[in-house]
Specification:
175 residues; mainly alpha; Rossmann fold; 8 helices; 10% strand; globular
């Protein structure tokens, strides 16, 4: 075991505490897919900000801690919920009236108020990727619009529909 791993095993830092839980979960080896998947997500209804950065930074810290403690490969997906509806017009963007006219539409169907991309969602996704790239994060970007349109979510959606009653019986008491 490397000296870094020995130090990490005795650390009470939250990132190492969380990574140790994953090491315990995968004590018998890598999952069937061959890697541990870390995910973080954001809703691109506004421009990327320090909170968005924090989401990816915290997940990356746990991933890094895990990599010190384990030889199991990892991947990090930064997921954009760009099919989310535009609920309000952000104060810090141009063409407020354009956005106001498109409230409640999926972000990838709202025109880009900056005029640089096909939609407001695409614009904000591009800004997020540039922002994360500037800091050297190692991630794979995924768009919910692309995942839905490609059919990638179809199997899971069919499973949810098949078990709708059981799912709703869990959810309703929490509302």
């Amino acid at each position: 075991m490397s000296s870094d791993a020995e130090i990490a095993l005795s650390s009470n830092s939250w990132a190492f505490v969380e990574a140790k839980k994953l090491v315990d979960r995968y004590a018998k080896g890598a999952p069937e897919k061959g890697y541990v998947l870390f995910e973080t997500g954001y809703g691109p209804s506004g421009l990327p900000h320090i909170g968005t950065f924090g989401e990816v930074a915290r997940t990356s810290m746990v991933r890094h801690a895990f990599s010190i403690l384990s030889d199991i490969p990892t991947r990090l997906i930064a997921f954009s919920d760009d099919m989310d509806g535009l609920r309000k017009v952000p104060d810090n963007v141009p063409n407020q009236e354009l956005l106001s006219a498109n409230l409640n539409k999926p972000l990838t169907q709202v025109p880009d108020p900056f005029g640089t991309h096909n939609s407001f969602g695409e614009h904000n996704n591009a800004r997020l990727k540039a922002f994360l790239d500037q800091f050297g994060f190692d991630y794979e970007f995924r768009s919910s619009t692309e995942c839905y349109k490609s059919g990638e979510f179809d199997e899971s959606l069919m499973l949810v529909l098949k078990h709708y009653d059981a799912i709703i019986n869990v959810i309703l008491p929490t509302l």
